[in-house]
Design a protein that fits this description.
The protein is 16% helix and 28% strand. By secondary structure, it is of the alpha+beta class. The protein has one domain. The strands form three sheets. It has a three-stranded antiparallel beta sheet with strand order 3-7-8, with no helix packed on it. It has a three-stranded antiparallel beta sheet with strand order 4-5-6, with no helix packed on it. It has a two-stranded antiparallel ribbon with strand order 1-2.
């Protein structure tokens, strides 16, 4: 019984605690991936990003966590251009639950706060 509980916990945490698995070691984007960070901190140093689908609703990004569309907190959104092209998310455990460490939209960044858009 204890083995089953431990196995379940390991499987649940595996996505959240994934480390750099080397898949981008030879990529010209490796340094860019290593430098990505949101207001919550560096992305790739704490978890591997995975491609994701997302929606924009009520001025915010929404992406799935375990199949449930979840609002991406503004502080998790990466605001620099996406050199990879596809949307990506980095998850970690926050208060015992999976949460967004970083989120990179596919084509540009939605500005939830219009005051951040400069017109000069």
């Amino acid at each position: 019984m204890m083995r089953a509980i431990i196995l379940a916990l390991v499987l649940l945490a595996s996505e959240a605690f994934a480390r750099d698995d080397g898949r981008y070691a030879q990529s010209p984007l490796k340094n860019w991936f290593d430098s990505l960070k949101s207001q919550k901190g560096f992305c790739c140093s704490d978890a591997d990003g995975v491609a994701t689908n997302y929606e924009i609703k009520d001025g915010a990004y929404w992406a799935p966590i375990d199949g449930v569309m979840t609002r991406v907190p503004d502080e998790a959104v990466i605001t620099e251009p996406n050199l990879k092209g596809e949307a990506m998310k980095w998850l970690y455990l926050e208060d015992g639950r999976k949460a967004f460490r970083c989120f990179l939209p596919a084509g540009g960044v939605l500005r939830a706060f219009s005051r951040q858009i400069r017109t000069d």
